[in-house]
Design a protein that fits this description.
With 313 residues, the protein is an alpha/beta fold. The chain has a single domain (3-307), classed as Aldolase class I (TIM Barrel), CATH 3.20.20.70. It has twelve helices and eleven strands. The protein has helices at residues 11-21, 33-46, 56-62, 64-74, 91-100, 114-129, 163-170, 197-206, 222-230, 243-250, 261-277, 284-307, and strands spanning 25-29, 50-55, 81-88, 104-107, 134-139, 143-147, 150-152, 174-177, 182-183, 212-214, 254-259. α6 (114-129) links the parallel β4 (104-107) and β5 (134-139). The longest helix has 24 residues, at 284-307. It is globular and about 60 Å long.
Length: 313
């Protein structure tokens, strides 16, 4: 089925509108019914466009039929919702997502040689554009671990001097850049570490009409880290990206910000607290409902105070 049959839209128009409007569209990752429901509970009341992001491993976990069944059941008719493959690592992975109904795909060739990255990115774009599916690609490498398929030991910043040629050759619709963010809980080595907004400014100047994307940009709220540790967890030295830096990045053409870790923290903190305070609870609906509310509240906060995407539908 085509993504339009599910009431989805692709990300191209969403991100162009955000580029001109000076805000970012949130790309929230989800992995099951509860995390999907939580995201929708945040974006629908705030009238925010949203990109529902699914990694390769999350797609394998949910299975294509179950995932698209949930998307069909959500009935996106009057909303601006895109379904996006996050970090597709091969042409075949991107093709599979397009064929089952995704409206947007990311090919992550950041760990390949530049020549190979261009080759496969163009191949993905040529295939995707036949079905009006939008394509995101990446230049530069993010450090950290997102899941078993997406990780990097070191960071290499995006080179502003090659972005224009890369976009021209690949025909990509948006470009993910590396300016100091990282996947996972440990995004900064110290509180003083800042994003390389100087690099971002150069990139934006060289490709002013191309929407830019920021991965690994979770805030990592300490209230969730503290709650997890209070109720039996063990997380140390976790640091996220400061909201003020994310807002500055949005002013320099960042139109899509990926959030995953924050939702994981909100979900886990809520479940740990509920089970610790109510050891007699055995009904998953009781603690899962609270976890859904926790994610929804955090997503709402980030829509209002970081993305600026409220009332942009």
């Amino acid at each position: 089925m085509h993504y339009s049959d599910f009431g989805l839209i692709n990300t191209k128009k969403l991100l162009i509108r955000a580029l001109h409007g000076g805000y970012a569209v949130p790309a929230f990752n989800f992995y099951n019914m509860e995390t999907l429901q939580a995201i929708l509970n945040a974006v629908l009341p705030t009238h925010s466009p949203v990109i529902l992001a699914v990694s390769e491993s999350a797609l394998d976990y949910m299975t294509p039929n179950m995932l698209m069944g949930m998307i069909h059941g959500a009935q996106f008719k009057k909303n601006q919702v895109a379904l996006h493959l996050d970090h597709g690592h091969s042409f075949e992975s991107c093709k599979r997502a397009i064929n089952i109904g995704f409206s947007s795909v990311m090919f992550d060739g950041s760990n390949l040689t530049l020549e190979k990255n261009i080759e496969i990115s163009k191949k993905v774009a040529d295939y995707a554009h036949k079905y009006d599916v939008s394509v995101e690609t990446e230049l530069g490498v993010l450090a950290g671990i997102e899941d078993e398929k997406t990780f990097g030991k070191t960071c290499s910043y995006t080179n502003p001097d090659i972005v224009a040629d890369f976009v021209k050759q690949t025909k990509t619709d948006s470009l993910a850049v590396a300016i100091g963010t990282s996947h996972g809980l440990y995004k900064r080595k110290s509180e003083d570490e800042k994003l390389r907004l100087d690099i971002l400014k150069q990139i934006a100047a060289n490709i002013p009409t191309i929407p830019l994307v920021l991965h690994g940009a979770s805030v990592v709220p300490q209230k969730f880290v503290n709650k997890i540790n209070t109720f039996g967890g063990k997380i140390t030295f976790a640091r996220g990206i400061k909201p003020i830096q994310l807002r500055q990045a949005i002013s320099l053409h960042i139109t899509k910000i990926n959030i995953d870790t924050d939702s994981r923290l909100a979900f886990t903190a809520s479940i740990r607290e509920t089970l610790a305070k109510h050891p007699d609870v055995i009904n998953p609906r009781e603690y899962l409902a609270k976890a859904v509310d926790s994610i929804a509240q955090n997503c709402t906060d980030e829509i209002l105070n970081i993305m600026g995407s409220c009332n942009k539908v």
